[in-house]
Amino acid sequence: MSEILVVGSVAYDSITTPSGYAEFTLGGSANYFSVAASLYSHVNVVGVVGEDYKDEDLQLLKSRDVSLEGLQQVAGKTFHWEGRYEGDMNDAITLETQLNVFEKFNPVIPDSYKKSPYVFLANIDPELQAEVLDQMEEPKLVGLDTMNFWIDSKIDSLKAILARVDVLLINEGEARKLADTHNTIQAVARLGHMGPKAVVVKRGEYGFVLYTDEKFFILPAFPVRQVIDPTGAGDTFAGGFFGYLSKMNGSWSVDDLKRACIQGVLLASYTVEDFGLGRLRQLDWAKVEKRFEEYMQVISYPHL
Amino acid sequence: MSEILVVGSVAYDSITTPSGYAEFTLGGSANYFSVAASLYSHVNVVGVVGEDYKDEDLQLLKSRDVSLEGLQQVAGKTFHWEGRYEGDMNDAITLETQLNVFEKFNPVIPDSYKKSPYVFLANIDPELQAEVLDQMEEPKLVGLDTMNFWIDSKIDSLKAILARVDVLLINEGEARKLADTHNTIQAVARLGHMGPKAVVVKRGEYGFVLYTDEKFFILPAFPVRQVIDPTGAGDTFAGGFFGYLSKMNGSWSVDDLKRACIQGVLLASYTVEDFGLGRLRQLDWAKVEKRFEEYMQVISYPHL
Fold first, then answer.
1. Which of A208, A214, A289, A299 to mutate to test the interface with B (most CBs of B within 10 A)?
2. Whole-prediction pTM value?
3. Torsions phi, psi of A148, nearest 5?
4. Hey, is the C-beta of A214 within 8 angstroms of any chain B C-beta?
5. What are phi and psi of B180, to 5 degrees?
6. How far apart are CA A244 and CA B240, in angstroms?
7. Phi, psi of A270 (to 5 degrees)
8. Longest Cα pair distance anywhere in chain B, in angstroms?
9. Do B258 and A205 touch (CB under 8 A)?
10. Is the CB of B24 inside 8 Å of chain A's CB atoms?
11. pLDDT tens-digit profile of B258-304?
12. Quick one: fold of A3-299?
């Protein structure tokens, strides 16, 4: 079984959406990614939690056979994000961010993780992303996500790490910002020339754009009639994407990248159907396969 | 050759986008629709222009063999819209609307038009849309577009005409407003139960959603690296959509509706590449076919 390393946030989120309110619900990019990717391969988590982190929340990852050796538990409180979604829910409004133990996070990669061939650097400080990558031994596929905050505050570190990754997975708004253009197609092409072999732009309810080998591949999201909470959809997408590729034994084609994106779309469509990890933690292969069939109907087109 | 009747605006637009400014450029839904649909079938236009309408602008439609018998020329000035696009250009900001001769527009359908089997009621007062439909003799396929203004001011008339049409083609924001929900998928399903056999939601750079027979069909737009001016893209889409269906000889399948949407996507992708009708008027079949091949690459996915 292949191994995927993920470094990212482990958090408690308080989220308000038009559907309701979830207080201190389990969240963080590393959690969404791990639960999604563990459907495909063994996941090694690197992150930090505080003393308040609940045993039942560790239990979730353990039940997915995720390795927690790299998940430090230190004095203080777990990272906390509070946000609100309104209207079409395409953008979160951050109400509060308490970094807590995340503020002094120093990612140390356990020896047992260092040979993980698949590495996903979720949205954290690009300098920490680089430190993680420095500790890895010959990774086969490295992916990276980032956000506006780092584009504004650490653009040089971000560009340096970008040149070292294979796949950039990024939100549409952040892709435009990083590439300094309002046109997503132009942005994707520019990002593709900053180092990554492939760029995947996550467009929320509009799906994704994959750019690789100077070509575009674009598909919509799975149509969800009631989006309860979009938090974590992007990290879930990344988990499905990496999970799928981790089964390719170290080599993959453009078609594999396309299939990986489709897995990302399917898994993310579950995440948005409930608050936090509510839906994703219940996901099994039978559900993914059923939704795959439905999605194929949605995007199937007749030839002329 | 089949015949398509369109009633809509004929206008001079002044448009500002990040790419520049076009002053009193030819526009209006009936012009975009007619130029697009005339690639497929004979088009009969119903509309009104003022004394200031230039002969060369009439010449454009004449050169496409579009019938102008229903295009009234009356005392006064042609309808004028002034708008601006910013940022991602997904929404126009209206700076000024001068209805001029359009204010007292009374659409009279010439006898030679009355048997047109395909009827497109572009975005005008829903009461006028009803008057046009009343004058038609057994149309086979009736399509309708509308906008926020009519949803706010004439919702009852709009719902009455909706129950009489086959296809609703509408912008995403307006679909959500008309269906009173922020979720587009839910909106489309609700609109599908208001009368039309099919609903097509136009999502600008994100493509479209087709809903018919309780099923969703969703595809992205053609990736355009430099959008110069999105004005008229929706009406161009409608022209391609109706144009394609008008060649089906009065019966069509779900696959034909899908193909019609794809024609809409392709034609609209040209319209946005220049101000006004600049690109669309130069369009020929060779270009459409080339873009069709490119689009098929963009949306092609491997089976698992």
1. A299
2. 0.96
3. -50, -40
4. no
5. 55, 50
6. 38
7. -75, -45
8. 64
9. no
10. no
11. 999 999 999 999 999 999 999 999 999 999 999 999 999 999 998 76
12. UDP-N-acetylmuramoyl-L-alanine:D-glutamate ligase (3.40.1190)
